[in-house]
Amino acid sequence: MTRRRALTALGSLAAPLLAKPNPNDIRIEELSFAFDDWNYRAPYKFGGVAVDKATLLNVTITVRNRAGKTARGMGSMSLGNVWAFPSRTMPYDRTLGAMKELAARIHRITADYKEYGHPLDLHVDLEPAYLTAAAAVSRDLNLDAPVPKLCTLVTGSPFDAAIHDAYGRLLNRSSYQTLSRGMVNRDLAAYLDGNFKGEYPDRYILRKPTPRISVYHSVGGADPLLAGDVANPVGDGLPETLPEWIRYNGLHHIKIKLQGDDLNWDIERVIAIDRIASEARPDVDWRYCVDFNERCPNIDYLLTFLNKVKEGTAKGFERIEYIEQPTQRDLKADPRNVMHQANKLRPVVIDESLTDLETLLLAREMGYTGVALKACKGQSHAMLMAAAGQKYKMFLCVQDLTCPGASLIHSAGIASHVPGVSGIEANARQYLPAANEPWRKKHPGLFEIKDGTMRTGTLAGVGLATG
Questions:
Q1: Looking at 195, 211, 241, which one is the last position of a domain?
Q2: Which residue, 391, 392, 386, is CA-closest to 368?
Q3: Are residues 178 and 263 in the same domain?
Q4: What percentage of residues in the chain have a pLDDT greater than 70?
Q5: The pTM is what?
Q6: What is the pLDDT of residue 195?
Q7: Cβ-count burial of 335 within 10 angstroms (0-12 exposed, 13-18 middle, 19+ buried)?
Q8: Do 321 and 352 meet the contact criterion of CB atoms below 8 Å apart?
Q9: How far is it, in rounded angstroms, from Cα 68 to Cα 16?
Q10: Which of 58, 56, 60 minimizes the C-alpha distance to 37?
Q11: Which residues of the chain are modeled with pLDDT < 70?
């Protein structure tokens, strides 16, 4: 359904919009994309898989308003197929190839779209077409499993980011200042549900970025903790052990990647990291996130883990700020894996499962109390889920997809403009530092971490501040 037909179906909501077109509305004039490949400086193990390379999808767009004024925007995102399209039967190149083919089809769909609207309107209209294209890719490539919705969001995210960026540049303001009545054509009820009637996204978004955000340093499942653990030194001058990283970046927040299928290893890993952190900076009020990447077999595993960690290090247990997606992403597949007991101990955050409002509401019913916002699901998605997360008083954090360069700037923009975000994961500085280099001078505070925080004042620029 096109936006025009959708608006017609909305009846009274459509009438004022059609009677007086919004002069701020944009349409797509030109669109291009390219891929950019990078090797990790060291493998990053999560979800039981060690990743050592990344393919970035970079998108450039030109938009035009009703008066004929044009502006260019850009978006970038790591395709992250190991996370977005996990498979036990298809190799890395197979799932990456499917995402590349989907990117080409999304490009054609988006380039052919000629309706005017706010970026949120374009998102609402284009996403169903992207999902249809994903189903076609699954059939045409004879994939072992269909392209997941999460994978489609990731592939479409740089296109959506580019549209928001161009829209902000056209209006010569931050994209986070383009979410109010008068720019957005409909209230949030049209994008979410009736609970948001009369509300606009700017109610939930800061006009100016928070000046500093705590950075969660990621400790991957294969990362060496101490010097004796370094089997293959990288030797590039960057830290190689956890104490070195703590001193180098002045860390006070750590994200701990766990296995989910080896209880003793998971427990000992947290205890060891807490001991190292405490010795390295005994004066710091440490904060941890533990992330199983949905590999816990059930809630009992998680509860046993938490109780055993508490026995092993009471202080370390208290330092766990939240738990990220402990069990499988298909929430409907095993409704018994509810988080009500776990959330009494710590906030439990939905991540891989979060693809729309429906999954957020289902997660709440199942005991999830937090939301992980991600640039890799799209700017529109992040703004809408940020509103929903705040509406329902959920814990908020911003997570990564090893986002380097422009994608990290985008991610930091979300983290610095959403009230109450606990911190941001930013691990490209650990695994893809070379991809950050072209962007370092423009936003040094994002790429040079000295006191455990990002300095985000430079994100007050126009668009998504990537230009």
A1: 195
A2: 392
A3: no
A4: 96
A5: 0.95
A6: 97
A7: exposed
A8: no
A9: 23
A10: 56
A11: 1-19
Residue tagged 């505070």 (tokens): 445
Overall number of domains in the chain: 2
Q: Is 109 inside a domain boundary?
A: yes
CATH of the domain at 352: 3.20.20.120
Q: Are the C-beta atoms of residues 96 and 148 closer than 8 Å to each other?
A: no
Residue with tokens 């590039």: 236
| CA dihedral sign of residues 111, 112, 118, 124 | negative
Find the CATH number of the domain harbouring 161. 3.30.390.10
Q: How far apart are CA 466 and CA 363, in angstroms?
A: 33
CA-to-CA distance for 179 and 203, rounded, in angstroms? 9
Half-sphere exposure (CA, 13 Å, Cβ side) for 317? 15
Q: What is the DSSP string of 294-321?
A: T--SSHHHHHHHHHHHHHH-HHHHHTEE
Maximum distance among all alpha carbons in the chain? 71
What pLDDT is attached to residue 334?
85
The distance in angstroms from the start CA to the end CA of the chain is 34
Q: Which domain holds residue 132?
A: 3-195
Continuous segment of H or E residues that includes residue 38: strand 26-46
Three-state DSSP state, 379: helix
State whether residue 423 is helix, strand or coil. Answer: coil
Query: How far apart, in whole angstroms, are the C-alpha atoms of residue 66 and residue 223?
Result: 53
Cα-based distances in Å from 142 to 86, 95, 152, 427: 16, 12, 17, 34
Residues contacting 371, CB < 8 A, separation 6+: 349, 350, 354, 360, 385, 386, 388, 389, 394, 395, 396, 397
Helix (H) or strand (E) run with residue 148 in it: none
> Whats the size of the chain, residue-wise?
467
Cβ-in-10-Å burial (0-12, 13-18, 19+) of 382 comes to buried
**pLDDT at 20 (0 to 100):** 82
pLDDT tens digits for range 334-375 = 889 999 999 999 999 999 999 999 999 999 999 999 999 999
Give the CA distances from residue 74 to residues 57, 107, 461, in Å, rounded to whole numbers and listed in that order: 11, 13, 14
**Single-letter residue type at 276:** I
pLDDT of residue 17: 46
Do residues 187 and 215 share a domain?
Answer: no
Distance CA 375, CA 14 (A): 30
C-beta separation of 413 from 459 below 8 A: yes
What CA–CA distance (Å, rounded) separates 327 from 293?
A: 8
* Per-residue pLDDT at 467: 81
pLDDT at 307: 97
